[in-house]
Specification:
The complex is a heterodimer of chains A (395) and B (299).
Chain A: H1 2-25, E1 40-47, H2 54-73, E2 81-88, H3 93-106, E3 110-113, H4 117-128, E4 133-136, H5 143-146, E5 152-154, H6 162-172, E6 178-183, H7 187-202, E7 206-212, H8 221-230, E8 234-237, H9 241-253, E9 259-262, H10 269-275, E10 283-286, H11 297-307, H12 315-332, H13 337-345, E11 350-352, E12 355-357, E13 371-376, E14 379-387, E15 390-393
Helix pairs in contact in A: 2-12, 3-4, 6-7, 9-10, 12-13
Chain B: H1 2-32, H2 39-57, H3 64-91, H4 99-121, E1 126-127, E2 136-139, E3 142-145, H5 146-168, H6 170-180, H7 182-187, H8 192-218, E4 220-221, H9 225-240, H10 245-265, H11 271-285
Antiparallel strand pairs in B: 1-4, 2-3
Helix pairs in contact in B: 1-5, 1-8, 1-9, 1-10, 2-3, 2-4, 2-8, 2-9, 3-8, 5-6, 5-8, 6-8, 9-10, 10-11
The chains are: A alpha/beta (395), B mainly alpha (299).
Chain lengths: 395, 299
């Protein structure tokens, strides 16, 4: 393991060097918006526009601009056009704070965006000083809303919602009595496994096995032999795709017939390549990709024709964020940031592409934000989602 | 009972891979006192060579076993040659230098192999074709696959072949002589450099055989796969008494069994703790390992 530590140290140093040089040339992202046409309403977007996550940031800003164009084509809001002001936060807390400050100097009425929680969380603190709303499209860390200074709203799920969702699916759709939960001791996987265990026990499913495997190994038959002896109805693995492929393959070869399920990090073609036909029927809990969302097809089409590429995984959420802010401005009948925050708090069943949006007192979205997919004919295909109090097939 | 048998089967399967790789560590240590850190990566390269051959043969409609045979032979030859080249380039010039220098070059060779494969094949995973359908039989409730039996027997055959080669042929005798005393062996007319090259070739070829079998059996390979397995195999060599060939075989199987039983009966998280605790206990009682002799007869 010592070798890995050295590698990661070297990577960290290289990353530090990048950050330092990037700081030197600091954010030119906003560009010509300074002059700002008279009579526009500015909505800010923070996202990583340089560095490792630049492509994700670009997907987000593109979606925001697409939403603004559509609103403006219909005459804008309160008789004014919407203008998107993008600032690079580099997924970095320091740069993010500066980006948020710049956006406020530009006079944005609200911010819709963010990608890395590590940058979004400090940004919300800066914006809160002037009661500017922050509507998050992609940051899933629970802290974002758990430490909400009063101006934060989130249209995507939280990391700790997936576990209870999986538990509900296991209890209600699969009707399981006994479940085995396996993780790989990484922060994400262990957290998800613990949430799932809590949810399962609350839903009356007995967790007969809860333990970790060592990621990077290839033979998990001994762990699976023990699991087999406990005879669970379902096995839920919360780690990553490489081990998930081996686990499902070896489980089937051992003659385990329990339903095999995985968390959202298992949804990768490598899983199917590794396990072959043994992966068939495996069920995955995941945030919906745009192609699995009913009603998002028009969005996918216009995004493609405008930018010549598929939208990113969070583009549709950002699109909803910008449209929602515009809707809140309309309802507040004002561009005063504080009144927009109040209007956002009142949001009830706003019809977004990602479904109905209502916020709870924390600023998190209510309702189920996860869906299940199933491996069928060697592909991940949409399976079931929870809607209006019941489980329905996704069409 | 069925669980016990299943752990036994699993342990022997994993153990035979460890044993094949451990042989390379032990042979090279025996002959030039070098812990060849690159050996785990040689195993990884073997798996990638085998994968490349199988991918090339995919269109030929060769029966699965024949294709596997070709992949094994090609991978063993190519990787054996690679081991030999590494010895010539990285180790041979340093044989008379302080031990630390050659240890550092071994680390360098390991990094070069890992990153070279990453540049060529990418950092993601490659998957072996599903050659063996996973068919098998059941013994008292334990599932045994034909592939497990086949690979286990093949490993035993390779180990037995190596043992006979070292103990029953003139070249093997030269190897053992070299392990005892290099200068004396040279005075007796042993071609020292040739024997060292042959040792590297054999060790690397065995690791490559393990690599191809491993890839076929688990189907998933990537450029870092040699690291964890190499570490375990090295542990096996030390447990059996580094420098001792039967020791490496027994050590490998023992580590495999220990892992299977501890992750089965106790917890997957405690597996490494238990394996290394046993290693420490053995070394406290018998510092030379299970089969290591106080008298330095190393092969």
């Amino acid at each position: 393991m010592a070798k890995r530590k050295w590698l990661s140290l070297a990577a960290a140093l290289a990353g530090l060097a990048l950050v330092v040089t990037a700081c030197g040339s600091g954010g030119g992202g906003a560009g010509g918006s300074e002059s700002g046409a008279a009579g526009t309403i500015k909505i800010g977007v923070t996202a990583p526009l340089s560095g490792d996550y630049a492509s994700a940031g670009t997907d987000i800003v593109n979606a925001a601009k697409l939403a603004a164009d559509e609103i403006n084509a219909k005459g804008g809001v309160l008789g004014k056009k919407i203008e998107i002001v993008a600032e690079d936060d580099q997924c970095d807390s320091q740069v993010g704070v500066q980006a948020a400050q710049k956006l406020m100097d530009e006079g944005v009425v609200a911010v819709a965006g963010g990608y890395c929680s590590s940058a979004s969380i400090p940004e919300t603190g800066v914006l809160a000083q002037k009661h500017v709303a922050f509507v998050a499209d992609a940051s899933t860390n629970p802290d974002l809303t758990d430490k909400n200074p009063g101006n934060v709203f989130r249209v995507i799920g939280r990391d700790d919602q997936q576990g209870p969702f999986a538990a509900k699916f296991i209890a209600e759709v699969l009707g399981a009595k006994k479940a085995a939960v396996i993780h790989d001791n990484t922060t994400y996987a262990k957290g998800l496994a613990e949430e799932a265990k809590k949810g399962l026990e609350a839903d009356g499913v007995q967790v007969v096995y809860f333990d970790a495997i060592t990621p990077g190994e290839k033979d998990y038959t001994s762990t699976l032999t023990t699991v087999k002896g406990l005879n669970p109805d379902v096995i839920y693995y919360t780690g990553y795709f490489a081990e998930a492929g081996l686990l499902v393959k070896q489980a089937r070869e051992l003659g385990i017939t329990a339903t095999f399920m995985g968390g959202d990090a298992t949804q990768d073609p490598t899983l199917i390549a590794t396990a072959g036909d043994k992966a068939e029927g495996m069920i995955i809990t995941t945030a919906p990709l745009p192609q699995f969302l009913t009603g998002a097809q028009d969005f996918v089409q216009s995004y493609k024709s405008k930018y010549g590429q598929d939208p990113g995984p969070y583009s549709v959420y950002e699109y909803d964020c910008v449209k929602l802010v515009a809707d809140a401005i309309q309802r507040a009948n004002s561009t005063d940031p504080e009144k927009i925050v109040e209007a956002l708090k009142q949001t009830k069943n706003y019809k977004g592409l990602t479904g109905d949006i209502t916020f709870n007192e924390k600023g998190d979205r209510t309702g189920e934000l996860y869906i299940t997919t199933i491996v069928k004919d060697g592909k991940f295909q949409p399976y079931k989602k929870y809607e209006n109090g019941q489980w329905v097939d996704i069409q | 009972m069925s669980a016990f048998l299943q752990f036994l089967v699993n342990g022997l399967t994993v153990g035979s891979f460890y044993a094949l790789v451990a042989l390379g560590y032990t042979m090279i240590y025996g002959i030039i006192r070098l812990i060849n850190f690159a050996h785990g990566d040689i195993f990884m390269v073997g798996a990638f060579v085998g994968w490349t051959v199988l991918a090339a043969l995919a269109a030929s409609h060769l029966p699965a076993l024949a294709a596997l045979g070709v992949a094994l032979v090609v991978a063993m030859a190519a990787t054996g040659a690679l081991g030999l080249v590494i010895e010539r380039v990285a180790y041979q010039p340093l044989l008379k230098a302080p031990r630390l220098s050659i240890l550092i070059t071994a680390l360098g060779a390991s990094l070069a192999l890992e990153n070279g494969v990453m540049l060529k094949y990418g950092a993601g995973f490659e998957t072996y074709p599903h050659l063996l359908a996973g068919a098998g039989f059941s013994v008292l409730g334990a599932q045994v696959k034909y592939a497990q039996v086949g690979f286990f027997l093949l490993s035993l055959a390779l180990m037995a072949g190596l043992y006979l080669f070292v103990h029953r042929t003139p070249v093997g005798t030269a190897m053992r002589a070299l392990a005892l005393d290099q200068d004396a062996a040279r005075l007796m007319g042993v071609n020292v450099e040739g024997v060292i090259m042959l040792t590297f070739f054999l060790g690397s070829a065995l690791a490559a055989a393990a690599g191809v079998m491993y890839g076929t059996y688990y189907t998933q390979i990537n450029f870092m796969m040699g690291f964890l397995l190499g570490l375990r195999a090295f542990t096996a060599a030390v447990l059996g008494g580094i420098g001792n060939i039967p020791g490496a075989m027994v050590g490998g199987l023992l580590i495999g069994l220990l892992e299977a039983f501890s992750s089965g009966y106790i917890s997957g998280q405690w597996k490494d703790v238990i394996v290394f605790a046993v290693l420490i206990l053995v070394l406290v009682v018998k510092p030379t390992g299970l089969f290591g002799e106080r008298v330095v007869e190393r092969m």
